Amino acid sequence: MDETAKPSKKYIFEIHFLRAFACLAVVGVHVSATHYGMNGETWNGFTYFINQIGRFGTPIFAVISGFLLFYQVKRRGFQLGSFIRSRFSKILLPFLIWSLAYRFLLYHYDHQELGAPSTELAKILTGESFYHLYFVAIVVQFYLVFPILQKIFNTQTLLLIFTVVSLVISYNLYGFDPGLEGKWGEWLAGKSFMPIWLFYFAFGGFMAYFWDGIVSFASKRPWKMLVLSLLVTAGAVVEYKVNGYVSNRRLTNLINIPLLCIAVVGIYPLLSRLGLVKKTLTIIGQYSMGIYLIHPMILYLMARHLPQESWETGYVPVLFIAVLISAALFIRILQFVPLSGFIIPVPRIKKEKARPEEASAKKLSA
């Protein structure tokens, strides 16, 4: 979700593609959940599939956030002042603005009275202003420790150690109960407690430091990577059918997410050959943070103004596309407003050049 400046000589289109898939997954979760809430009926096979497979999206965003930060440090080094300015303007400020916007939305439509300033501040900092903002709060928490992490884990070997240690931490924090009551206890046991997600950020760093090898391996096996992604998806279907409803923090994601991230990197050369698909995913990836921030508001307004029959199962794909188009149009129009980057940052996309690994993948897929 997070975008850091990258050197002009090497724009990483695979990661941008991965971000588009994560964005589509998250929107799918929330569209299907709104459909379920509006209908007041049990899940059917289609909407349940969309909701559960979409649970891959948020952890992938964490991987991307870790990747971009570690990759920038690997190539450019780390400057604390620049890091703070960049993260404040591109993440923290939009997070605060949209937290206030969603609080106003709930105040206006649901007549939810504002609490004491300390209570409202706590809601904002923990991402409780609206149901999706908890993840931005997690990313902000990671930013607080990143200056220390990048100083310690700054080689391939150390990044590998950090990834393994983070895996152990995230695994052991599954279902963590601190035994505390009150807000602190709720936060430590809740989904916005960053250490639960630490492995995904760490794996992003792992990908950053082993990037050339990962791209070389995956892009030469595009069809095998496609099969791998389908196998992971099939395994997730079996899991929710056997165990019932699962969240994006389920233990199997500690395996699923790394496999999916590598698979999408390998599939990229195949999909990039399809002009319409490539252009669509490029726009979604470019607008991904904005789509993430605004799509729940669009869904919220749709739920209150569209007729009840609009939420029947057959309309779910239409609603999904409508949400994406509405969000993209809003972001595009907002770009004409001065200083709109402080509300929704939109990264620039450089023109892609032909690369040896992509040419190789095209030969393999021919």
Would you mind describing this structure in some detail?
This protein is mainly α. 71% of the residues lie in helices and 0% in strands. The protein is built from 16 helices and no strands. It has helices at residues 13-39, 45-53, 57-76, 80-109, 117-125, 134-152, 156-172, 182-189, 198-209, 211-219, 222-243, 253-271, 275-286, 288-305, 316-334, 356-365. Helix 1 runs parallel beside helix 14, helix 10 crosses helix 12 (253-271) and helix 11 (222-243) runs antiparallel to helix 12.
Features:
single chain; 366 residues; mainly alpha; globular; disordered N terminus; disordered C terminus
What is this entry, summarized?
With 366 residues, the protein is mainly α.
Distance between the termini: 33 Å
Q: Poorly predicted ranges (pLDDT <50, ≥5 residues)? A: 1-9, 356-366
Largest beta-sheet characterization: none
Q: What's the Cα radius of gyration?
A: 20 Å
- Strand percentage: under 5%
- The oligomeric state is single chain
Order of helices and strands: HHHHHHHHHHHHHHHH
- Label the structural class: mainly alpha
- Write down the overall mean pLDDT: 88
| SS element count, helices | 16
What share of the residues lie within helices?
A: over 70%
Strand segment count: 0
What would you call the shape? globular
Number of domains: 1
